[in-house]
Amino acid sequence: MKNEMLAMILAGGKGTRLGKLTQNIAKPAVPFGGRYRIIDFTLSNCVNSGIKNIGVVTQYQPLILNDHIGNGASWGLDGLDSGATILQPYSNNEGSKWFEGTAHAIYQNIDYIDSMDPEYLLVLSGDHIYKMDYEDMLSKHKKNNAALSVAVIDVPWEEASRFGIMNTDENDRIIEFEEKPENPKSNHASMGIYIFTWARLREVLLNGFKKDVDMYDFGKNVIPFYIKSGDNVHAYHFEGYWKDVGTIDSLWTTNMEFIDNEGDLNVRDKSWPIYSKNPIAPPQFITSAANVKNSMIVDGCFISGEIDHSILAANVQVKEGSVVKDSVVMTGASIGKNVTIKRAIIGENAIIGDGAVIDGKEEIAVVGNSEVLGVMINEG
């Protein structure tokens, strides 16, 4: 069956700026908000936008991400005419080759895309926190008779030099692309969200790689090629909540904003639910010695300490005398007695021994996944 629009989520990034948190896990699989992983927001946007088939391109440390997505059942993508397909590098008659860029990842998966026979291809990043109706973007793409539509968000002028900037004319047609310009001409920052008319992109990629033309990256190669070739390239302006959580500071800040019940993301909006695959866990247990305020506590937690303005994911333990403030504690972490944790991110299944002090006063403190602090391990 022909798909009007197929989504391809690029989820293979290392996320090196997240340090310890991505040593053994792909960036899109990093936990967020107590109950989610980062990629859940992009997947949920697809489902809420009526997109029934999604290819997820993975590469770096894919095990946890692959297990999390599975067959897409948690997002309702396990029907007869819907599905989530994990796409990893593979070898063929030409040998084995890793994905070497965003456009190259699409080129390597042309056979899969052709099998879905889409009219339009939606290319997404799997590592942003936002809610967006891609159906509205497709409607504008059709109205503009565009070969390519690029979602943009206006950033503060003082930050524009950190982004890929799309310069447009009075009709929002993109006439120039600048990668992290020193003196930006506009503040229309690319969100890494693209809708291509598939027949044209297929032609551009096949011809480019056949002639050994550099077509590895959308931002550096493909978009400039479209503009230079006179293709109709339009900007789609997005004005909602959107955060790139690619650094420790941005991941912590966005989690702290998530605690705000009246925040712009509004995760409680029943008309646009955020779906996820969650572990089976017993109800949370908060003892009489505990003091919890302005925090999110997920199933399976045992709390006997003080929790203030923090997020505790599933199956976290905080024992008596301990204080957790302005922090994110990920699934399965165990915090001993009389521990102080402030302005920190505690990784999945980390173990914090009695009396430890973790203070992110100068910069956000990070304890890695399964890291052990302040505990004597008897190897005998």
TrEMBL record:
This is Glucose-1-phosphate adenylyltransferase. It comes from the Bacteria. Homotetramer. GO terms for biological process: glycogen biosynthetic process. The record marks Q59, W98 as: Could play a key role in the communication between the regulatory and the substrate sites. Pathway: Glycan biosynthesis; glycogen biosynthesis. Alpha-D-glucose 1-phosphate binds at G164, E179, K180, S190. It comes from Ligilactobacillus apodemi DSM 16634 = JCM 16172. Belongs to the bacterial/plant glucose-1-phosphate adenylyltransferase family. The gene is glgC.
